[in-house]
Amino acid sequence: MADSTNVLALETPILPVLAQRRSPRAYSPQPVPPEALRQVFAAASSAASCFGEQPWRYLVGAQATSPEAFAGILASMGEFNQVWAKNAPVLGVSIAKLTFSHDGNPNAWARHDVGQATATLAIQATELGLQVHQMAGFSPDKLRAAFSIPADYEPVAVFTLGYPGDPASLPDGLREKELAPRTRKPLAEFLFEGAWPGLAEERYDQAPV
Fold it and tell me: What is the pTM of this model?
């Protein structure tokens, strides 16, 4: 069932699944079925990448089936994120392989490609009634220590994955963020045809999720 909370309203219509994608903090304790988990990562594998390298790697910890991995990922997060992320049924880490497999040279586009894969993953999750919340608030060093991540692989982001829950379960400040209207910059602020414009100012007042 599609998530109908805070569906994004844009000036130009887009696919409903894109408008329904959001970054919740309230999660249901309902486990994510193994087949659904496989589907979202299969979607990630469909993303484009430089030279077809597919530099994305994912570490996953599910409360129901891999609690030690779940705890290791949770421990890498900042305390602010741990408060709510501990209730998600699945935690994940996106990781970039920083060198090309065919020649060993640095892959300057690896992080970009990992972002593409994770965005595709998030859209597939939304189609299945799941939601993903990606975060920068984590310690790569803690992840390296906990999971023995090699030096030529870089943790890019951590994320929650699960079925959206009741916003009332969140502390007051987070509940407000969960229910705040979602907005985006108008196209004119980031779409430039023909030349780079002289913008008077950049706006940073938009809802982040």
Answer: 0.92
